[in-house]
Specification:
This protein has 13 helices and 23 strands. By secondary structure, it is of the alpha/beta class. A 4-stranded mixed β-sheet has the order 2-15-17-16. The N and C termini lie close together (about 10 Å). The relative contact order is 0.14.
Length: about 425
Amino acid sequence: MSVTIARPHSLRGEIVSPGDKSVSHRAVIFNALSKTNTAQITNFSPGADCSSTQQIMQYLGVEITRKPGGRLAGDTLTVKGVGLEGLTEPTDILDAGNSGTTTRLMAGILAGQNFLSVLTGDQSLKTRPMGRVVNPLTTMGAEISARANNTLAPLVFHGGSLQGINYNMPVASAQLKSCLLLAGLRADGITNLSQPAESRDHTERMLSAMGANLKKEGLDLILQPSELETIDVEVPGDISSAAFWMIAAACHPDAELLIRNVGVNPTRSGIITALHMMKARLELMDEREVAGEPVADVLVRTSDLQGIELSGETVPLLIDEIPVIAVAAAVANGETVIKDAQELRVKESDRIESSISWLRKAGINAEGTTDGMIIAGNEKINGGSFQSYDDHRLAMSLGIAGLISEHPITIADPDVAAISYPGFWGTIKELGGLVA
């Protein structure tokens, strides 16, 4: 199967971004581990990744019901907490699908249980590095077996008691720190994590809101063993999904798009920082706070974008958005240089290699580096047929390229977008870009 996208005469309208994946994962996991009260989670992400998390919690004995939302709203989940000690041994292997977040967060939960469990995923997930969570969890006392010298899924958790840890994190990773904080909730003693740089902080915000004894001192996180209180969560719109429409509007020659209810958490809003650096005409409107998370409507108009350098502490705040930032870089005035993004090489695809591959095929002067890419800019994107490489963010980035390219772009295997954004191609169609 494939889809073909062509540039419409204009891009105008309002878009509602689906529920934030990161917040959705955490809302269902943390409430499942809370004291035995019932929580309601609204605007839950419709993507397959968050469904994998939900299903695994159900396999571990948590009672969850799900009610589908309307076209402009995510699903509503009702979760009955079982407490930190209330999970039950699964009768089968736990399948995280394509979700690295599910795998790494669940590792922190399963590592200290008093039962055996096996966690796996699809072929893509089985290639992604898990040693970064296995090693510190083992230091905490977990007994874990895995492929390739304990670095690749499937992961087998043999149970055991955990001790708090003082740990210098080798990378700024929200998944890694979340895994270790979840393990630390029921460990003996204090868990102290030292981060090399800031990364998305949804875990810290939500754990604190649920009563965890968690302190932040600079880049250090200090957690005492804690019970969690159940809370209702209204999930904000996903900024990683909204990023596609921001860039479409900034790059299209006649555009004005308003993206409603976008989560603009400072540790996630690197895409807004990057677009402001590129001189995008982007405004935050009706800024407010919902369930501890900052939210705003984002208005973006046709812009004369400029090439920039992205590096250092900014990169972890927009790592998932770099494939679509590459689209903007292709049409910006001047060179864009992206550094310190080696994490892209171990995502659903090698996103440096796959991005450079399609850019060159589309006529863009671009080259990959060990930790990023260099894109010449000020070029017109040519049409053609391209592979999605079974990577949802690459498939959607190609869709946005089609909305601004000189000639239609055909994308093979577009259904992979459903991993994070099931309604993506429907929105492209509403904007007038879907040809077939």
